[in-house]
Fold this protein.
Amino acid sequence: MSQIASRGATMAVDWEQRIDFAKLRRDRLERARAQLQDSDLGALLMFDPNNIRYVTSTHIGEWARDKNARFALLPRSGDPVLWDFGSAARHHQLYAPWLPAASFRAGVTPMRGAMPDETGVPDALAAQVRRELEERGVAGEPVGIDMTDMVALDALHRAGIATCDGSRVLMRARAIKTAEEIALLDHAAAIVDATYERIYELLRPGVTESHIVAEAQRFLFELGSEQVEAINAVSGDRCNPHPHVFSDRLLRPGDQAFFDIIHSFMGYRTCYYRTFSVGGANAAQLDAYKRCREWLDDAIDLVKPGASTGDIAAVWPTAHELGFDDEAACFGLQFGHGLGVGLYEAPMISRLHSLQSPVSIEEGMVFALETYCAASDGISAARIEEEVVVTADGCRIITRFPADELLVAGRSYVRGADLLGAQERAPEPVAST
């Protein structure tokens, strides 16, 4: 395992080894190739930006994330080919020397149906892919696809390309993280540690959820985030049931408020909840937080190689215990999911599926565990989440903002009676002689 110094630093230096990005690129491509070799696929065709980045180590901004504007082919042998968005291909030919210049080509996709069959774009895409498969002698073998739109899929079938699910192969490649990947995930979490410090300072009556989201987003970018996917901010009577979205609601004294920060640093993501009370906390809020923390700690205690996702899900309360009709109705409240270049990676953990289809936990996996507990006051709720790295003998938590107990934020108030009492207790001044 490579030794990575000064974790949390972002500048490259000549005097110590920090994150080795060349090794990161090689390791990711080799893992994808190895999983492809173990499959019965002739190639992988990728439209998912997370997989494209994992395999080619290229990125053209978050504006491209939901457009299906790029596609890449990883054949069973040879270098990957990336059809990029216009001039981005020229840029990568010049500045991405880890792949041959011939790997980068300009290409156009149907853009989720915006360029339909009559434009000729879908069939041109399929012809390009077909030609690459023929040149590599795998035109008759199935091609695994991670995601696409129906327009492109129909064109591939017209070109005689047999397609099937390729996401399983790529998820296996991404499940075990390298030392460089873990360091980047750790740094992404450190950025959120600092952001929660800022949120704690902001929480007070009269501030809106949306203002906190805006300030947190600005702070994340200042600290090096390249994408803020979402910041959940939920307070007061919006806590129960969990709406999974922020609003313009004003915070009030006595509110419970929880937040989730989902962002990426160098492509590696966080999912990181914390809960606070504003100005004070009642007994119901304290009890909900205590139970929420216990459910989370019970799960963390089970994380080690050889345990299963079913073992973890089994310690969480059932849907009926939480007041829901079935596990689908409360899906995501007691939850676990892998983290990497994607927000949701293997392993996924829930009572909905993990008891019936458990997955063995392996060293090098990184995942988030999150729990939720509604308070007995019918309004408040606690939500906590920790990110863990599976080690040889257990796990290491990389989310460090304090969460063992419910923290109260907001202004500190001093009673007049306390001031009067202090004055009455003050010693009489000694007369000078």
Q: What stands out?
A: The domain at 21-174 is CATH 3.40.350.10 (Creatine Amidinohydrolase; Chain A, domain 1). The mean pLDDT is 95.
